[in-house]
Every structure is written in structure tokens, then in C-alpha cells.
Amino acid sequence: DTIRFTSAAFSPDGTKIVTGSRKSYVSVWETNTGKKLSDFKAIPKNIYGENGFDYPEAGSVMFSADGKFILAGVADYTAVLWDSETGRELRKYKRSRSTCSSCITEAVITPDNKYIISAYSDSLKVFDRETGSLVKEIFGQGGTAECLSVSPDGRFIAGFEYGVAEIWDMKNWKLVTKTGDYSDRKVMSVALSPDGKELLAGNEK
Prior knowledge:
single chain, mainly beta, 4-stranded antiparallel β-sheet
């Protein structure tokens, strides 16, 4: 069958690529050869019950900054963390008690591996990586943030909602700045610079 990729990211050393697909498989490939090295599959189980639940899509994937973890944002507002070497699923992160097969989330892990941050239901959810507990909810324009980006020093997180790019300070969880306009200059993508001092926003016009 043809694989329909939905997301991809390089490992910190550039030797591997992690991809997400429509059937929520997360795979790791060798960059130079294109050889598949391993598959990571979210355990198809509702974390709030015993009923089986399959995740139909991986909306975002990434390696942690040290390469130890692989994180995916999948359906049902769920983020899943694996050990990148063993493929063992370590934890799921979710706030909502839904079983929504079409509700795909984006998720990122901070450079210090302290937090897992996912975006859905009008806010950013900040989870403690080790315990899975919800630490903070960050609210912006009132929509679901997309294209999450964390600065290398772990100080700032950026995303866009309703065409407006926003940056939050993770020391006090406050909104620092926002730019763009939904009607005239709708932001479609954002990224923080390697030094964390600049925001690059791609606009529709």
C-alpha cells in the first residue's frame, strides 16, 4: 500500500527522519539510504477507559532535542511519547475525555524534555513529561494554535491562531506578542529562529 505521510522531522544529528502517516504509524528512516529502521504504533486504547480506540492519523512528529524521545500528535486530542531506541510507548498526554477520531492535535516537547505541549480546544495544554499531569493551559485568540515552535532555550513557544501569529513566554506563561491579521495578512506558518530572538511568519498575502 502507498504510504500517505502527514508529517516529518529530522533527528538532532540529521542521520534519521521520523514520519507520521494517515494510519497513525510513526516510522524512522535512515536519511542517507531511505531505509526504514523502525515503526512506532500508538497503542489503540482510550486512555480514559478500557474500550479500544484506533488513532487514524499522526498530525505531528518530532525527536526530542537530545534524540531520546519521539513525540507524535495523533487523533482524539492525544500526544504519544516513545523511547526512540526501544520503541516502547512511555505515556499518552490528553486532557479531553472525548473519543474523536477526526480531532487531530499537534504536539511538541521542550528542549529540556520537561514539558509536552499540545494544541486543541482553544488552548495550549502544557503537560509534565514525567507525570503526565496538566501543568498549565495557555489561551490566545480563542482558537486552536497550529504550527507550534519552541525556542532552543525553551523560553518561548510560538504558533498561530485564526491567522494571527503569537509568542508566549514560558517563564510566566504570558502572551508576549502577536502579529498578522485574519482578513488582510493571514498567517499560515510560523517558526522561531535558532537563537530564539526572531519570529518568522509566512502570510497568505
